[in-house]
Amino acid sequence: MGVIIDEFEATVSITPQRLFKSFILDIDNFMPKAIPFIKNFKCIEGDGGVGTIKLVTYIEGDQVKTLKHRVGETDEKNYVYKYTVIEGDIVDEDIEYFINTVKIKSGPNEGSVYTYTGEYHTKQNDHPNSVDKIKQRRERSKKVIHAVEAYLLAHPHEYV
pLDDT for 128-145, tens place per residue? Predict the structure, then answer.
């Protein structure tokens, strides 16, 4: 089994508190409103804390149909969220599971710096197909954070 680490950082014009409150703490309600390709985001096991399993359902015709993730950490003080994707179209013949860590810190002009780290556990040490899939996931994740920013800018009275 191999491990591939992928990271990116994005600066957004939303405060860390507001970004974390919407995108992490109220993710089940927020994501279907803010992200056009997400149909449903719901808790299927647990109370929302560590160990909770969440199911994400994407709109029909999207390249991904579903995924399940398990909450690993929610640190409201330091704005850190960690979860493991354990099932779904993204977890396939090449990728066994992956651990995502989201960190939000203060950025310029009262905004935030959003840092994403993905730790992809591949089924084989040789993983040429996985690298392309991970790059596609990174680009999709960038689109998500900017869609979140756009939604919050368009709805300035939500999550304040």
Answer: 677 777 888 888 889 999
